[in-house]
Specification:
The complex is a heterotrimer of chains A (249), B (306) and C (326). With 249 residues, chain A is of the alpha/beta class. Chain A is built from nine helices and ten strands. Chain A has two domains: 164 residues, P-loop containing nucleotide triphosphate hydrolases (Rossmann fold); 72 residues, no CATH class. In chain A, helix 3 packs across helix 4 and helix 4 packs across helix 5. The longest helix of chain A is centred in the C-terminal third of the chain and has 15 residues. By secondary structure, chain B is mostly helical. The radius of gyration of chain B is 20 Å and the shape is globular. Chain B starts with a helix and ends in a 10-residue tail after the last helix. Chain C has a two-stranded antiparallel sheet. The longest helix of chain C is centred in the C-terminal third of the chain and has 27 residues. Classes of the chains: A alpha/beta (249), B mainly alpha (306), C mainly alpha (326). Chains B and C meet through helix 4, helix 9 and helix 11 of B and helix 5, helix 10 and helix 12 of C. Chain A: GO terms for molecular function: ATP binding; ATP hydrolysis activity.
Chain lengths: 249, 306, 326
């Protein structure tokens, strides 16, 4: 089996008495979509934050491309290739969609300590950014400030920014949230093709999308992973049905 | 350097710290509950001092003056909260800074208008005049001891208010969750006005108490305000306990620094250079302490939760 | 041409026309007034790098304004008195050449801003405001308690420092020197705003989490902006020292820090010419209101309160409409 791209080992994080992450281990393998599901308050977003660097775990290891990134900040992890979308859209609201993506392109190209050349006349920034907007179907909205985009468009823009980083792995936190059935279907198709560019750790509540996309599923309940397996294995897992799908035995 | 002198300086530092606590407690409460940075807090200090001095001069009683200072500062606080401050809760910090900066200009000039540019003087009340003997043969001003006592009383009172009363419960709820407190059926507007007025009254009290030690003049509030900022930055914004610890730390550091550093540098640099170097360094000491604390604890000593 | 650009040109022309008209009418005092406008505008352009682009509400920029002033004052006093400022590793007698003084003012301001920024920028929001205020206060008290350069009384510059090739003692010449520096700073501001650095800085103001998530650490960007900002405000301080031929701790005071912010807000936050409009308006208020009543600050407070509560776009916002962002 190929070496995992991202590997989490025995991660723990408590907030006071609450064990938000209670010994979580999981792998993200090349080419796969690994879905992380679980009821509300299971600690999915907390886990994503720890992987991305926004929250420091109490203990455990996060190995990305063979390197322990546990001591790095958010920006340094992003530069190493962790492309992330937020549960609640997090964009630069005054910047246009294009400039939001350009920021990612700029970061990928290296230093932001360039003081004189106007970005809007810099084709090495605008062209790749525009290409990402085209891929995500936002090209016609390139010059609209992010604050004025619709909810669904903002979700798409999140993905476009993550793409522009040329990441080695995606962390997508509920990309379908609030999208509506049509948007969800379109995004499902899009993500399906994306896994060949970089594997995806996908937190998602939309079970249709999860079952359609995931190569493997991990179920997080009260900060613990109670099961990891293929779609069929998870569907058939009694504990999962009890704890999560809410069925009585 | 006698023990008596050191005890006296320690008490001076403590008294200064107590005064800073009265300022910082209001600031930190207002920030903790309403998320507001209030530069005009120093104006309430000044209003308290002027009200006390003017009323004491008119009535001949320091105590009536003291009551007047509390009333005047609380009234000014209420007025300002209703007229201006409540429009600022949802604004960003820049707007809050500017609007309350504007309030400083307005209050300072208005006070100068009313009382003229000359400082007023306030006498220590006869009951508290004189000195008490301390162990080691020192004598210490009774009035300053009284200020320390009042500060301790206020600290205890605030602790009781916040942890034991309905108002305190609402304040704690308001800090963590505005919606919940609204759901409790509490009129949040009234609560905010009360907290603001309480903070203003504490500042006014501090101004009145210090007014008998220094001259009462326009602009007296802002240097103290900035020190109170240092206090709450050190203590952790939003934490009353942090304000108390920070205030005593700043009060002692500043007083002892001014006392000891010139002496210390005199040993190395001789009397002339040593005294000036020591004094210059002492004037910067609390800021250096603040920088050091922040370098290790960016959120202060007692960071508020969340 | 957008409306804002037209207003900018108008403001620049107005500021230039004022001393020329004053000269024609023989009212030399107005040249000083215009010079004061240009210098305060320059100081506020400096602050605008941190505040307007980076959203860093520094309430301590008077520190850099005053440091610039003191650097000019101290160097020129040594040059004037021919006393060495230090004698190791070489004897240094200060300087009375403006370019040298400016460079020194910018350099020292930046050097002081670096540690202040490094500590303050570890925090955010209200902490940042209070800490920058506290550090400025520290430098203020240091200036007061350090007697070598006048302490509380301040330091006089006996003869205005010189600039190669021109006579700076002529009021109009000194105005033009200040005006050119202001335009240069505005040009720099426009360039930086539209650059990669500016994009990162502004993105950090709008959404720090987003900036970090694309792999750009906000801290270094902000520290650089804070330092550049301090250097330009320090340059303005050196000019003001030469205008007044006097530096005092009041240049370092918290009121001055507040006024610098006020200049930006009066003119319009996030606008290239906001500081210029603000400085012109402020000096005009000071002059007109100050001529009418001793209590002009009372009315300034009311006006400022009105602007914050009801006209947040400032003068340019009122004239040019809502800000556009690309």
């Amino acid at each position: 089996m190929a070496e995992p791209v991202l590997s989490i080992r025995d991660l723990r994080k408590s907030f006071g008495a609450l064990k938000a992450t209670d010994g979580v281990s999981l792998d993200l393998r090349p080419g796969e979509i690994h879905a992380l599901i679980g009821p509300n308050g299971a600690g999915k977003t907390t886990l994503i934050h720890q992987i991305a660097g926004g929250i420091t775990p109490d203990s455990g290891e996060i190995i990305f491309l063979g390197e322990d990134i546990g001591a790095l900040g958010v920006a340094a992890r992003a530069r190493r290739g962790l492309g992330r979308s937020f549960q609640i859209s997090s964009l630069a609201p005054e910047f246009s969609a294009l400039r939001n993506v350009m920021l990612a392109v700029q970061s990928r190209q290296g230093s932001s300590f360039r003081f004189f050349r106007p970005v809007m006349r810099d084709l090495s920034l605008t062209e790749p950014a525009m290409a990402m907007l085209e891929r995500t179907g936002l090209a016609s909205r390139a010059n609209v400030p992010a604050a004025e985009l619709s909810h669904g468009e903002r979700r798409q823009l999140e993905i476009a920014i993550a793409l522009a980083l040329g990441p080695k792995a995606f962390l997508l936190d509920e990309p379908m949230a609030g999208m509506g059935p049509e948007g969800s279907r379109a995004l499902t198709g899009f993500l399906d093709g994306l896994r060949h560019e970089a594997p995806i750790l996908l937190v998602e509540h939309d079970m249709d999308a999860v079952f359609a996309l995931a190569d493997r599923i991990s179920v997080l309940v009260y900060g613990r992973i109670i099961a990891t397996g293929t779609v069929d294995e998870i569907r058939g897992d009694a504990e999962v049905r009890r704890a999560y799908l809410g069925e009585q035995p | 350097m006698s023990t008596a002198l050191i005890i006296e300086q320690l008490l001076n530092g403590l008294q200064f710290g107590v005064m800073l606590f009265l300022m910082a407690a209001g600031l930190t409460l207002i920030f903790g509950v309403m998320g507001l940075i209030n530069l005009a807090h120093g104006s309430f200090y000044m209003i308290g001092a002027f009200a006390c001095a003017a009323v004491a001069a008119a009535t001949g009683s320091f105590w009536i003056g003291l009551a007047a200072s509390l009333a005047a500062a609380a009234a000014a606080g209420t007025l300002v909260e209703v007229a201006v401050i409540r429009r600022l809760y949802d604004r960003d910090h820049l707007d809050q800074v500017l609007a309350t900066f504007a309030l400083i200009l307005i209050f300072s000039e208005a006070t100068r208008w009313l009382f003229g540019s000359f400082p007023l003087y306030l006498d220590i009340p006869p009951v508290l005049a004189g000195a008490v003997a301390l162990p080691g043969g020192a004598h210490y001003q009774l009035y300053r001891l009284a200020i320390i006592g009042i500060g301790v009383l206020v600290a205890v009172g605030l602790y009781y208010l916040i942890s034991r009363t309905r108002l305190g419960m609402r304040i704690r709820a308001g800090e963590s969750d505005r919606e919940m407190i609204a759901a409790l059926g509490v009129d949040i507007g009234t609560l905010y006005t009360m907290v603001f007025a309480l903070g203003a009254a504490l500042a006014g009290l501090a101004g009145a108490l210090v007014g008998a030690l220094q001259s009462v003049q326009v602009g007296m509030g802002e240097p103290v305000l900035i020190l109170a900022f240092v206090v709450i930055v050190i203590g952790g914004i939003g934490s009353i306990k942090g304000a108390l610890v920070g205030a005593v730390l700043v009060g002692l550091t500043d007083t002892l620094g001014r006392f000891l550093l010139p002496k210390l540098f005199t040993v190395f640099l001789g009397p002339a250079d040593g005294a000036t170097t020591g004094a210059a360094l002492a004037s910067m000491l609390i800021y250096i302490v603040m920088a050091l604390i922040l370098a290790f604890r960016p959120k202060g000593l007692f960071p508020a939760t969340a | 041409m957008s409306r804002e650009r037209a207003i900018n040109l108008l403001l620049a022309a107005l500021l230039l026309a004022m001393p020329l008209a004053a000269l024609a009418l023989g009212e030399l005092f107005y040249i000083t007034l215009a010079t004061r406008m240009a210098i305060l505008a320059l100081a506020a352009v400096g602050l605008n790098f941190a505040l307007g682009l980076g959203g860093l509400v520094s309430f301590g920029h008077a520190a850099f304004f005053g440091i610039g002033g003191y650097v000019a004052g101290i160097l020129s006093s040594h040059a004037f008195n021919q006393t060495p400022m230090f004698s190791w590793p070489f004897e240094f007698f200060g300087s009375d050449q403006m370019p040298t003084l400016w460079l020194a003012a910018m350099l020292i301001s930046a050097l002081v801003a670096l540690p202040i920024g490094a500590i303050s920028l570890r925090t955010a929001g209200v902490y940042f405001i209070m800490i920058t205020l506290a550090f400025a206060q520290m430098i203020y008290y240091f200036a007061i308690s350090w007697p070598a350069y006048g302490g509380e009384d301040g330091l006089s510059i006996v003869v205005r420092n010189s600039f190669p090739g021109v006579n700076t003692a002529v009021p109009l010449t000194f105005f033009l020197v200040s005006y050119v520096l202001l335009l240069a700073a505005l040009a720099l501001f426009a360039l930086v705003r539209d650059s990669r650095f500016g994009a990162a800085l502004q993105a950090g103001r709008q959404n720090e989490t987003r900036l970090a998530a694309v792999g750009i650490a906000p801290f270094r960007i902000r520290l650089a902006a804070f330092t550049i900002s301090a250097a330009i405000t320090g340059l303005a301080g050196a000019l003001l020292a030469d205008l007044n031929r006097f530096v005092s701790p009041s240049m370092l005071s918290w009121q001055m820090s507040g006024e610098l912010i006020v200049l930006i807000i009066l003119g319009g936050t996030g606008r290239l010419f906001g500081p210029v409009a603000g400085a012109m308006l402020f000096v005009l208020f000071e002059f007109v209101l100050g001529g009418l009543t001793e209590r002009w600050q009372f009315f300034l407070g009311l006006i400022l309160l009105g602007v914050v509560l009801f006209a947040r776009g400032g003068l340019i916002g009122v004239l040019a409409g809502k800000a556009r962002h690309g």
